[in-house]
Each structure stands twice: as C-alpha cells, then as structure tokens.
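Inputs:
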Amino acid sequence: MSENTSVTEQTNHRFLASTNHDEKARQDFVRSYKEYLVKNIHAGNRERYEKTIKPKFEKSQNREPGDRFEVRDLMVKDPYYQMFSSLLRTSQEMMWSSCQIPVEKRFTALNEEIHLSNGESNQGTLKLDENLEVPRYHKAVDIHCQPGGYHSEFGENDASPGMVYDRAVHIYAMGQMGPFNDDMGASIVLWLKENHPDFKPLRILDLGCSVGHSTVPYCKAFKNAEVHAVDVAAPMLRYAHARAQDMEAPIHFSQQNAEKLDFPDGHFDLVVSHILLHETSGKAIQNIISECHRVLRKNGVMIHAETPPYKGMSPFDAFMLDWDTRNNNEPFWSRSHEIDLDNLSKNSGFDLGKKIETLIPSAFQIEKVKRSEVFQGGDFGGGGQWFIYGNWK
Amino acid sequence: MDRVLKRKAKGERPYFFEDPNVDKLVSMIMGLAGETSVLMDRVDTIEQLLEKKGLLKISEIEGYEPSTQVLESRANRREIYLSEILRIIEIELEAESLEDNAPYSSAVKEVEEG
Ligand SMILES: C[S@@+](CC[C@H](N)C(=O)[O-])C[C@H]1O[C@@H](n2cnc3c(N)ncnc32)[C@H](O)[C@@H]1O
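Outputs:
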C-alpha cells in the first residue's frame, strides 16, 4: 500500500445523491483507478519520450522536436502512449457512468426534493431564463464527456446534471480540490486576503459558477458582500441554489450568458471565474473580459482561475497538458492556453499596468494529499497551484 | 433499470490503437476490474460486520484450512471459470484438431447446392 492513496472524502450535504454500498464502491474504484494512472502510469510517457522517442527523432533529423504538434505526431504512434490514453479516456467515461447510476435510480424523487426546497428558499435567489440560448461552444460536443453536458434536461425541472457533476468533480480531482470541491475559490480568497488585506468587496460576481463549488468560499469569507453567480445552464443553477441553501450561503444565482450580463455598469467590486474561460471560444473570451470591464467599478478587480498557459513550457509538457483538447472533449482548451492575455486586457479597456498574471498556491494543503506537482491531463489539481489572470480597473 | 440520462457524450470518440477494438477491450477489461473491485469491497464489508457481531474473526479466514472436499469443489469451479474466459483460444485449437477449417463460404455453397 502506498501512502499516496490516503483518502479525503467529499463532505456530504443534503442534496448530494446518496449511494448504496456498491454504488459507492464503484465510484471509489474510479478514483483509485485515476490515482493509479497519475502515480504509476502517467510518468511512463515522459520516459518513453526522453529515452526512446526523442533520441530517435534527433538521430534522424539532427534537431529536437520543435513544438507540441511534432511531439504529438511522434507520441500517437507509441504503444505505451496509446494504452495510457485509452485507459485515461476510459476512466473518464467510467467516472460519469458511476455518478449517473445513483442519480438515475431516484431521478424523479431527487429532482422533486430540489424543486421543493428551491420553492421554499429563504436565502439567496434563483432566477432562470427559459429563453436564454445555450452558446454554440457548449452544444458542439459534451464538454469533458459528461453525457448531455451542463445544459441538457432529461425531465421536468431537471437538476440531475448538477447532481452528477457535483460527485464527479470530486472523483475527477481525486479529492485534490478539498471536501467541498471549492479549492479554486478558496485559493483566490486566500490570495486576496494575503496580498490585498484592505480590499473588502461588497458586491461579488462569479461567472460560469456551475453548482457553485467555488462561489461559496466568497460568501463565507466576505460576510458583508452580496454574492451573485451566473451560468448558462439551468440544471446546474437549480442544483447550485439547493446546495447553497443547505450550506447556508446566501447566493443570488441567475441564468445568464457571461458575454452579455444584465447587471448595470460599475456594479461590482470583484468579478471572478474558475475554469470558465477555456470552455468558451475565442470570441466569447473577449466578450466576457469586456463585460467584466463594464460591470466593474473603478478600482474593482476581475480574477480568472485556469490551468497555466503553454508559454514557456517544453513541447512535451505542453503536449501532455493538451491531452484534454482532443481526448476529453475540450475543443477550446488548446487555443485558450495560447491566448495573448495582454491583448485580451487591452482590447477590453483595461490598464496593462494593473494586470495580474501569476501562480497562486492552493488553499487546500491538507497534509494527507500528496500531489504529483505537475500540470497534466487527467490530474486536475495535481499542480498544487492555480494560474490566475486578472486586472484591476 | 431505467437509463434516463444519456450514456454517450456528444462528439467523436477518439480511439488510440490502430484497431479500435483494442480500445474497446481496454474499456471492457477496466469495466470488469471495476465490478470486481465492487465485489471485493462487499466481501470486506461482510467480513468486517461478521467480526463486529462476534460471528467471525478475520484472522480465522487467514487461518482457515479447507477440507479436501472444499479444495476439490473450488478447483472445479476455477476450472470452469477459466475455461469460460479462455474459450476463444481453446476453440481455435479444437477447430484445428477437428479439421474444422474450411472457409465459411464453402459451407454456404455446400448447403445451397446440397
Ligand atoms: C468548468 S465549469 C465551471 C466550474 C465552476 N466555476 C467551479 O469552480 O466549480 C464551466 C461552467 O461555465 C458555464 N458557462 C460556459 N460558458 C458560459 C457563458 N458564456 N456564460 C455563463 N456560463 C457559462 C457552463 O455552463 C459550466 O457550468
């Protein structure tokens, strides 16, 4: 037994779909399987590359592979990489399936519980917009292979994609985002408190909040603030509202496209997003940053958490971090990691002198969790750091 | 069970081996490994509960010496188990020894003309 498999469990809440013995065991297996890949299988790709594949290329070409595309053309032919990829893709599919099973079993009852609770809510609000169009970049493929994506509805008042997602994120991150899956939000909060102790936001907006994993920490940390969170996907928001109620976090959820918000100009002190940008599109990113600029007050700040850009990475590292683009239904992952952040800020009217671009430490530093400390496909949170990009206005 | 949710994520599924069936086998094997793991956890739960209720000591399982009869029946069960798994290889040998190696089209022809 390795010490690395020390288990941090997801904290239960009223709306986390319950699992019977075998359903839980099935989910536990997927997590162990993913941990095993990270710990024992993943590194073999680098070894194959460094010891065999790269030297062979150098011998015939008299130079190193120049970029991640050349590395890709070599690696996709390698049997070890093929098996690794096949195993990793399979783990992703098994993850979703193992999280769907307990939800499907009590589909109607679970949805009714959430609907009822949302109807009686006395903390925060939920505002849905039937007419909001789900953006093309979400309908082209089901992002990171969740069948139906964030937005599909499988019944009336459906919150099931949120139920499936809540559980799956914990398995996907192998617990590395903490018992509430809230590490990205918690890490930005920590960074703000340590680096800008005088900044006390009174209105906060979280873009692309999904089930509100990252939103809740802002509520807890800035008790006087009014916290808003938007997403395009109604099923996520229904679940998010119920979950936030149970966690006593008064959040105002509304179904909106972050490219075109209905908040007034200069309304917010702090606008954040967590792994939203890479799931949009080239045009959408620019639109979102422009909206951030519009809804921020002067001296307010926007902060976006992502995995780090490829800039400065070795072609091999960039290739491995890029795995998800083709293999985990993340069509915009590549491009989003190569975007010129200076231009992004500048085009939206931000002052580049007030730009933020840095790696921040993860707030979830529980001792038991030993990370790989690598940014790589299939090892979300393994880096132990988050990349943030942002700008003060 | 009612499968209400979608099972396939929209988007062309990547296959990594030249023959996609190899990827499919990987998926099946990991599916089986998962279900076996579920079973192992269940057996463990049973053992833990039995011990808690004082009906069994887990150390007794380690010290358990099966009788000849039990050994025999287990060996039989394992043989059937293995023959089920390895059938695909064995039937090839069987075909050879029975000279059952004519192309299928010849059987069609034989039946049609016979
Ligand atoms: C990876 S999830 C975000 C996870 C979440 N922020 C967290 O930290 O737990 C991306 C979310 O962004 C939403 N989304 C994508 N494009 C959007 C847009 N243009 N406006 C609002 N939400 C969007 C999706 O519906 C999805 O729920």
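Remarks. Residues 25 and 31 of chain B are 10 Å apart (CA to CA). The longest helix of chain B spans residues 20-52.
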